[in-house]
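tool_log.txt
---
The assistant was asked to compare two proteins side by side. It first ran the structure predictor on the initial sequence, then on the second. Raw inputs and outputs are pasted verbatim so the downstream comparison step can read them without reformatting.
(1)
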Amino acid sequence: MTNRKKQANLLRLFRKAHRKTGAFLFIFFFIISITSLLLGWKKNSNGTILPKTEIGVSSDLKDWMKIDTLQTIAFNTLKKSIDGNIKLDLNRIDIRPEKGVAKFNFDNDYWEVQLDGTTGKVLAISKRHSDLIENIHDGSILDILFGTDSDILKLIYTTIMGTALLIFTITGFWLWYGPKKMRKENR
């Protein structure tokens, strides 16, 4: 088989892989692209995607209440403000000393309670839409929906999508470069 025929066969193979993979994974690439855009803009969304961080009284941690006291305030606030029966699954505590704020982020429906670290005053109760968007983007939402504890579905999803993106990059490059190379060799 001549070199030109080998290149043409490789080009056909890449075109076929590119087309079939693209058709199969179109919806996933669409979701990833939209969530990427939203996550890129989260800090510039005027609090729509990611709640604005409020400002507390003091940035000096010596003036702050104990974290367990702040946590109790956050838990009570969420129960009183949202639902008395809400599960209090704390995802993380985000301490922002420079702003005088402690953010308590919950797994349940992506709630956030921001407290003044010094006074314990509730500064904001907000939804963290960015956390939901991130879970959709990286596939964690699958483990949440199916109740898996090991992140196995996220790992499968990211492996498939990462591999697919790699295949698209390689085949897309060859679909662009291959014909140029063949024309150049034909001269």
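(2)
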Amino acid sequence: MIGSGATEFPKVFKLRTGSGSAHVKLVKKPNDAKRLINQAFGIGFSQYDKFANLRERWTKYKIGKVNFKEVLKGIVRLGYTTNFAKVAGRERGYIYFQDFIPDNNFDNRVIVIDGKACAIKRKNRENDFRASGSGILSYDKENFSEKMIKQSFKIAEAINSKSLAIDYVFKGREPMIVELSYGFPSGSFVDDCPGYWDRELNWHPGPFDAQGWMVESLLDS
């Protein structure tokens, strides 16, 4: 039971929906975890967290990723929810907690599509443990160990995935998986990668078309 010594805090709370660190919180105390559990099996959680959305817009404004107009939009949205949240309904009936892995100021995302892999290093927001959606990115090949890339290929093949995004943090030097997803942002997020690895871990420098890989894989299947 929470608080009985059977587990340790902090924990990371997540919903199964969301992107860019939406619906991801650091739970520091047993009472906070109990409150989330009661909400999960009670009224549930809205798909749209308007206060978190506003904080995210303000954070990106401070680092120059968006203009002040986006902050104003976030303020206006405090008064209403999104159409998606209305249609999708509230998240309820389950609870997810993960162990918190300290001493990480970034995470790595490895994307594997049909025997090819690219990787992105995402740095944490200021005074925050979350990296996803921060917009602070690095693509240097030296950021990514061959062990992590090789492991990503093995996972994709083991679950027979055509498109897989794997998020890693590190416990010491050991890569630890924190999330698996089938999707990832389009545009410059992936297009800015300087190259990709094949299954034999050969490096292929230069631009590529990740979405094109998906189409080719579908046509070949």
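---
observation on (2): The first helix runs from residue 30 to 40. The chain is about 30% helix and 25% strand.
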